[in-house]
Amino acid sequence: MWLEVFLLLSIAIYLFYLWATVNNDFFVKRGIAYKKPVVMFGNMWELVLRRKSIIDIVVDLYSEHDGQVYGIFDQRQPVLLIRDPELLKQITVKDFDHFVNHRTVFGDENDKNNLFGASLFMMKDSRWKDMRSTLSPAFTGSKMRQMFQLMNKVANDATAYLKQQQKESASQGLEIDVKNFVTRYSNDIIASTAFGLEVNSFENNNNEFYLMGKKVTTFTFIQNLKFFLYVHIGKLMRLLGIGLFDTKSTEYFMHLVLDAMKYRKENNIIRPDMINMLMEARGMLKSDNLKSHNREWSDIDIVGQCFLFFFAGFETVASLICLLAHEVMENADVQEKLLQEIQDADRNLDGKPITYDIIMKMNYLDMVVSETLRKWSVAAVVDRVCTDDITYELKNGQKLEIRKGDCIWIPVAGFHRDPQYYENPTKFDPERFSEENKDNIRPFTYLPFGLGPRNCIGSRFALLETKVLIYYLLRDFHFAAAKNSSIPLKLDSNGFQLMPKKGFWLKFISRN
């Protein structure tokens, strides 16, 4: 009996090993230089085991090889890491029709229990094109002007909250975890501009909308484990009815969006937000501007777009603002120059509220935001999947065959930290993006929001949201180091989220 158990166990272990290493010779067959994988974890083992941040992982992989393409393994999946700007241009722009889709990892459009899988990010081919053109009008310059008023109000509420808190420690300044503060700001903006809700997360710390946002964007051990299992056995996870997010979170967003649509239709309410745009797409509202695609959008399709906007805006924009505030605090010359631009704009307003046009004309503020996005790539890597075989000739004369189903990675953080494109890349230097210098940046080496037709649809929104808050904060407060500030800034090895070990602690000292 024991011999039978031993034999069965040995066979099971052998079969598991074969399954886990089935792709290990992928790059050998193609004649491509590659990094040897660790069983099951590939070259991502330090990320899975929380040994390094995603930025450090991507930069290290990028830096290990000097060719145009490098073979790596994202767990069991072979991935072509593209390291050459010209090849990147060819793939993302000229041959975009061969690389339309993202890799299916965290569910897909057929997963009816997964809001993320139903979102624009995971949609494929014509469905993606139709939804992209449906949502694009929500992010035009004219729409940003309308949304600016909503953002401005939330930024004022946020600044007023800090002023009130600072009164209690006027002489010492106010030390806070900026991430907690900024996620409340981004939460209230999303509530207003996407969902049509009036939420003040500074006065009501535990409102349901904010708590749900924290829940779905916090990467706990269980959440990381779910992501890991979805990568390896996604079909089984869906078959078992195990979603990336719990049923309560999914039902909350379903009811929030669908009930809002129903209420607006019954009461003839029109607002310049995403729900309004999705109602037009569904034919619930008449629109002269919306393209007709003759496509029926399901409930999960509609709610998935709002959920993606919420998920990306809640965490990603908050991280960008925190990283920017820290760099401004740590670089006194940058803070002084940015303050000067803000004060000049404020004086010219002569007591009137800041406007969209003035924010957009603040060149140094734009330079500071751009440099933050370069040094701290909020999206460290972007992927694409080949939908039709294609061959490229590399500089060394070798032919690179990319076949249908092959996955490529665009190492954003790698390009941004490459010294051949950015001198002294770890230095925070907004002057890289000045009018005199920005033309020296090699095309396709600065890609904070992706490249080509499948770039980030919400980039304008994210930039405006960031600039508005920084304008008010720096106008009214000096940014100083707190006791728990991480100087120099070093990211915690907690995987996907960009966070120092002790958090983003800063001291705000009133200028009044």
From TrEMBL:
CDD domains tied to this protein: CYP6-like
Checking SUPFAM superfamilies in the record gives: Cytochrome P450
- Name the keywords, alphabetized: Endoplasmic reticulum, Heme, Iron, Membrane, Metal-binding, Microsome, Monooxygenase, Oxidoreductase
Q: Which residues bind heme?
A: C456
Please name the GO terms that the record assigns under molecular function.
heme binding; iron ion binding; monooxygenase activity; oxidoreductase activity, acting on paired donors, with incorporation or reduction of molecular oxygen
Membrane topology term reads: Peripheral membrane protein
Q: Does the keyword Iron apply?
A: yes
Query: What organism does the UniProt record list as the source?
Result: Glossina pallidipes
Q: Which GO terms describe its cellular component?
A: endoplasmic reticulum membrane
Q: What is this protein called?
A: Cytochrome P450
